[in-house]
Amino acid sequence: MTMSAIATLAALPHALPDCPNGRTALFAMRRIGGHGLTDARAAHALFTAFGEGFRRPLTLVRGLMADMAAAAAGPISIAPCCCARMTHAEAALLTILARVEVYPETARLLLADLLGIRAVDGVLASAAAVAVAFADEGRPITA
Asked: InterPro entries recorded for this chain (predicted)?
């Protein structure tokens, strides 16, 4: 392995999710995290995935990203959209979205670790709303 490959694996240790819905959520979160809440490509990706029902998931993903940014004790690392691997933070966030409905305590602990704070109830509610919005449209996020 070359040094650049080792550095890439260290920075991006997780493979992209197998779940296409998780990939859609990851793309939207990367775009919003890197380009702002009103990013048109994130909106287009969710419109393409959800059709006419795109507004609810888009609004809730925007809200989740804003809540995480406001609550986090430090930076949350996200990779550029073109990366074929994920950071620890991205993998944790997708795991949270996949588990928040069935295993809320596990999701709460992961979110507390991700944000570096103890009181995560508001952000956890935002994550649950995103997960439910995806599931209600027939696109549940699985880990």
From this structure: DUF6628
